């Protein structure tokens, strides 16, 4: 019998993160409604590194690495030595071997199991300037981001409607990427609403500064008041190859990356950019 693997789209829509984590041996330390809290899922050496899963939205956030995403993004982070195609195959194999989760498998007795409900989409309801919501303000202050967020970040109010037509509302601080998606940061979730993408802020046609993330850019912006270079923000490491093509048009390029990501692999990846100057933010 030929083995058929689930594709990435099917995995994203049908595989519950909590079920996959359970099969991998991770049990939630605490469950609060839709929020499931785990420790040290991404094999952190730090004691009790916090990993959060929103079971309703089927998304996750790791507080130590600041990574987040869907079930495929989790697989890429969990098995860093595998490429995306290998990750989807591995998840598919895990589900077939274990006959789990039951929602997407049919038991040997021929009885059809309950199919999973498709994960609902986010709906953006309102965008406001920061300072309107005390909880968002408190979060930004706790992260040391309040002063640099003014005039740059927005308050993003969004909701989902589940299969029982129940509406759940959320809010977070965020900024918009060039594909129309909103990159949001909050106490219990950081991720993207809509399509992932880079963020481009036009300036000089000759000089560009490449940032790893928007918060790194804001820190630089706060210390450098003058307008000048164009800004390109990756938002996600997987956009590095696309960034190389984008910045080839600029005569001078400065690259800013956070210390935690300064490693041989990353430095090797940016060699093709050939910037006049590489600066590392500490």
Secondary-structure map with pairings?
Elements: H1 8-14, H2 17-23, E1 30-32, E2 35-39, E3 50-54, E4 59-62, E5 68-69, H3 71-78, H4 84-98, E6 123-129, H5 134-142, H6 146-149, E7 154-161, E8 167-176, E9 182-185, E10 190-193, E11 199-201, E12 204-211, H7 214-223, E13 229-233, H8 240-247, E14 252-257, H9 264-269, E15 277-280
Parallel strand pairs: 12-13, 12-14, 14-15
Antiparallel strand pairs: 1-2, 2-3, 3-4, 4-5, 6-7, 7-8, 8-9, 9-10, 11-13
Protein name: Toprim domain-containing protein
Characterise the protein shown here.
By secondary structure, this protein is of the alpha+beta class. It has three domains: 8-104, Zinc finger, CHC2-typedomain (DNA Primase, Chain A), CATH 3.90.580; 123-193, no CATH class; 199-280, 3-Layer(aba) Sandwich (Dna Topoisomerase Vi A Subunit, Chain: A, domain 2). The protein has helices spanning 8-14, 17-23, 71-78, 84-98, 134-142, 146-149, 214-223, 240-247, 264-269; strands at residues 30-32, 35-39, 50-54, 59-62, 68-69, 123-129, 154-161, 167-176, 182-185, 190-193, 199-201, 204-211, 229-233, 252-257, 277-280. The longest helix is centred in the first third of the chain and has 15 residues, at 84-98. Residues 97-120, 259-266 and 275-282 have low confidence and may be disordered. This is Toprim domain-containing protein. It comes from Pedobacter nutrimenti.
């Amino acid at each position: 019998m030929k083995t058929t693997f689930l594709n990435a789209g099917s995995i994203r829509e049908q595989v519950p993160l909590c079920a996959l984590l359970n099969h991998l041996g991770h049990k939630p330390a605490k469950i609060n409604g839709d929020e499931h809290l785990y420790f040290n899922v991404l094999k952190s050496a730090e004691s009790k590194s916090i990993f959060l899963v929103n079971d309703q939205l089927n998304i996750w956030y790791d507080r130590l690495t600041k990574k987040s995403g869907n079930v495929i993004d989790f697989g890429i982070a969990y098995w860093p030595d595998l490429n995306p195609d290998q990750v989807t195959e591995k998840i598919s194999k895990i589900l077939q071997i274990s006959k789990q989760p039951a929602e997407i498998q049919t038991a040997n007795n021929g009885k059809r199991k309950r199919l999973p409900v498709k994960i609902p989409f986010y709906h953006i309801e309102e965008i406001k300037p920061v300072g309107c919501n005390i909880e968002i303000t408190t979060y930004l202050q706790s992260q040391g981001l309040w002063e640099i967020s003014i005039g740059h970040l927005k308050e993003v109010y969004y909701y989902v409607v589940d299969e029982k037509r129940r509406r759940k509302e959320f809010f977070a601080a965020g900024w918009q990427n060039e594909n129309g998606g909103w990159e949001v940061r909050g106490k219990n979730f950081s991720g993207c609403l809509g399509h992932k993408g880079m963020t481009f802020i036009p300036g000089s046609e000759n000089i560009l500064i490449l940032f790893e993330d928007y918060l790194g850019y804001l820190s630089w912006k706060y210390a450098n008041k003058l307008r000048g270079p164009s800004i390109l923000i990756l938002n996600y490491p997987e956009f590095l190859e696309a960034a190389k093509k984008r910045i080839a048009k600029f005569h001078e390029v400065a690259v800013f990356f956070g210390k935690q990501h300064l490693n041989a692999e990353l430095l090797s990846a940016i060699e093709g950019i050939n910037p006049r100057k590489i600066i590392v933010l500490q």
